[in-house]
Design a protein that fits this description.
CATH topology of chain A: Rossmann fold
Number of helices of chain B: 8
Order of helices and strands of chain A: EEEEEHEHEHEHEEEEHEHEEH
Structural class of chain B: alpha/beta
CATH superfamily of chain A: HUPs
Helix content of chain B: 25-40%
Bound molecules: flavin-adenine dinucleotide
Number of domains of chain A: 1
CATH class of the largest domain in chain B: Alpha Beta
CATH superfamily of the largest domain in chain B: HUPs
Largest sheet of chain A: 9 strands, mixed
Distance between the termini of chain B: 52 Å
CATH class of chain A: Alpha Beta
Distance between the termini of chain A: 58 Å
CATH architecture of chain A: 3-Layer(aba) Sandwich
Strand order of the largest sheet of chain B: 7-11-6-1-4-5-12
CATH topology of the largest domain in chain B: Rossmann fold
Oligomer: heterodimer
Largest sheet of chain B: 7 strands, parallel
Number of helices of chain A: 7
Largest interface: A-B, 78 and 90 residues
Order of helices and strands of chain B: EEEHEHEHEHEEEEEEEEHEHEHEEH
Number of strands of chain B: 18
């Protein structure tokens, strides 16, 4: 069983973020691996551990800092890492990103077949959740998304999907793209030995040329959308805080009534 | 310009977000309703007409619509002449529109709070980074797909409502690799679903697991009950009630957070709400930073008093 896990370098949710020229500004010490990708790494490790054989490859696409996400995956137990980096990728939309990741998956598969790609349910910075579907379409593989449970066997993967109207069980033949939710498992903590090993691990950097992807097919110029304006939302004005000394419930009710909300 | 709206329906009824989406579509061009599933009732068709749909294009695809790629293929056929497709943004429709965009080459924005035409191009507005930034995006591709969040447009009937014509759309569905082995319906609670509710009253760890007061307050305000992840993890209330980045994103006119600290994951799913109120014992809880009206106090004291006061003022 060979599993590729996509990991994204995202800004720390607690830190200040901003836009420059329509794209997210990132600083070197800002951010690590998208929290929800920890569930993807965990799901992959559990499958390989249960099978008693296999390999987990962590892949990230992004600028020089993005390698931090791969190292984080290695700390958790991924066996290998790959970093795809090329200035021409900057500003790609989800379809451009899927093109790049699909090409990287094919390249990883050149040395040995890849059975599964596992992703997180969303990146907590962008949160569109569109990438797993776009990637499945691009690879023309089975799509098993939003899995809160995942089992693999007999050349097939089966997931449970908790949708608002129904709980689905869906099966599909491998190879498949699977996205897992934060309900799927409880990510492990990195162990010391792996932390040390991850620090020293050699992580190959692949460019678009290495992947055989035409630069004009990705990046800002190929993007179907453009951010034309971005501004930080101003803090709420006229905020009121009251400390309950016996009548705060009444004050709260009066506030709601005055606002026409109660 | 034809603007297609994928109609969300429950038990045959058109949901309110669909009427909001039709209202939004009227600002962009001439709305056409797209209906997947069993054919709509005469009432549903009349209502869609009232909100401006000239046509209701029906693809009777039944449960096949549960496959994102099949739903996308049906929508692609039904919207060949539409340069804009609007859907209600949910985890499920985001998968469908991604497939649709792969088929049609459209540019996509999901989780939008609105859209308008600027120089012939669709521009959308939305919040990002846990709703701390406003972003405006232009869709450059010839076709545009916009996923809009519920409660972001005020639904209103068309000024000159017409009678919508029902058009049956013959669709050829692609083979799917995926096999849906079972579908176990989630029992739907009475009242408005969380994502569509105009008022949400949420309880977190501070409730200690007792949702009686939260539910009573929600009912009085005509709202739905929400929860934090800690509360759903504890099994105090079902996962469907979870508000936040990995649960349901809500943008009601009023959000009341009771015994919720306001972790970034939670805030990201409710910060764009109209008015935010919180009740929390800890004055340093981050939820106060984004609350229009915050009460430092116990929800067990504050909610009963607020309920009593509202009832009294309504009676008087
Ligand atoms: C990847 C990831 C995704 C996540 N996604 C989500 C998500 O989508 N949604 C979400 O909610 N969380 C999410 N979380 C969890 C989130 O980080 C917080 O742990 C969670 O929101 C905290 O829930 P809480 O506010 O109920 O509990 P706490 O943080 O424990 O806060 C409880 C609050 O109740 C107050 N309180 C106690 N007693 C009373 C009383 N009697 N009256 C009034 N106040 C009282 C306390 O002062 C405290 O502020 C996610 C976490 C991770 C790692």
């Amino acid at each position: 069983m060979r599993i590729l896990v996509t990991v994204k370098h995202t800004p720390d949710l607690q830190s200040q973020r901003s836009f420059t020229d329509g794209t997210v500004t990132r600083t070197a010490d800002d951010g690590t691996m998208n929290e929800l990708d920890e569930n993807a790494v965990e799901a992959a490790l559990q499958i390989v551990e249960a099978a008693g054989e296999g390999e987990v490859v962590a892949l990230t696409v992004g600028g020089p800092d993005a390698v931090a996400a791969v190292r984080k995956a290695l700390q958790l137990g991924a066996h290998k890492g790959v970093h795809v980096s090329d200035e021409a990728i900057a500003g790609s939309d989800v379809f451009g990103t899927a093109t790049v990741i699909a090409a990287a998956v094919r390249k990883v598969a050149e040395e040995q077949q890849v059975d599964l790609v596992i992703t997180g349910m969303a990146a907590l910075d962008g949160l569109t959740s569109m990438l797993p579907t776009a990637l499945a379409a691009e690879l023309d593989w089975s799509q098993l998304t939003l899995a809160s449970a995942l089992t693999v066997g007999d050349g097939e993967a089966t997931i449970e999907r908790h949708l608002p109207d129904a709980h689905e069980t869906v099966s599909a033949p491998l190879p498949a793209v699977v996205s897992v939710t934060d309900e799927a498992n409880k990510p492990r903590y990195p162990n010391f030995k792996l932390i040390m090993a991850a620090r020293k691990a050699e992580i190959p950097v692949w460019t678009l040329a290495d992947l055989g992807v035409d630069a004009s097919a990705v990046g800002a110029s190929a993007s179907r959308t453009t951010v034309v304006d971005a501004s930080e939302r101003p803090p709420r004005e006229n905020r009121v805080t009251v400390t309950d000394t016996g009548d705060a419930g009444t004050q709260l009710a009066d506030f709601l009534i005055e606002k026409g909300l109660a | 310009m034809s603007v297609a709206v994928l109609i969300d329906h429950r038990s045959g009824d058109v949901t309110r977000p669909s009427l909001e989406a039709l209202t939004l579509a009227r600002g962009l061009g001439s709305p056409v309703a797209v209906w997947l599933g069993d054919a709509p009732s005469a009432d549903a068709v009349a209502q869609l007409g009232e909100y401006g749909a000239a046509e209701v294009r029906v693809a009777e695809v039944g449960d096949e619509a549960r496959h994102p790629a099949k739903a996308a293929a049906a929508i692609a056929t039904a919207t060949e002449d539409s340069s804009v497709v609007i859907v209600i943004s949910t985890f499920v429709t985001k998968e469908i529109v991604t497939r649709l965009a792969v088929l049609t080459g459209a540019g996509v924005v999901v989780d939008a709070a609105g859209a308008e035409l600027v120089d012939g191009k669709v521009e959308t507005f939305q919040t990002v980074f846990a709703a701390t930034w406003n972003v405006r995006t232009r869709i450059d591709a010839e076709r545009a797909i916009v996923g809009v969040r519920p409660n972001t447009t005020q639904a209103s009937p068309a000024e000159a409502p017409g009678a919508a014509t029902v058009v049956a759309v013959a669709v050829e569905l692609p083979e799917a690799r995926e096999r849906i082995v079972s579908v176990e319906p989630v029992p739907q609670e009475d009242g408005v679903p969380l994502s569509e509710a105009p008022v949400v009253v949420s309880g977190g760890r501070g409730t200690g697991g007792d949702y009686t007061l939260v539910a009573e307050f929600a009912e009085l305000l005509g709202g739905a009950v929400g929860a934090s992840r800690d509360a759903t993890d504890e099994g105090w209330i079902s996962h469907e009630h979870m508000v936040g980045q990995t649960g349901t994103t809500v943008t009601p006119a009023l959000y009341v957070a009771c015994g919720i600290s306001g972790a970034v994951h939670h805030r990201g799913g409710m910060q764009a709400s109209g008015t935010i109120v919180c009740i929390n014992m800890d004055p340093d809880a981050p939820i106060f930073e984004i609350s229009d009206f915050g009460v430092v106090g116990s929800l067990f004291d504050v909610i009963p008093q607020a309920i009593e006061r509202i009832k009294a003022r309504r009676a008087g």
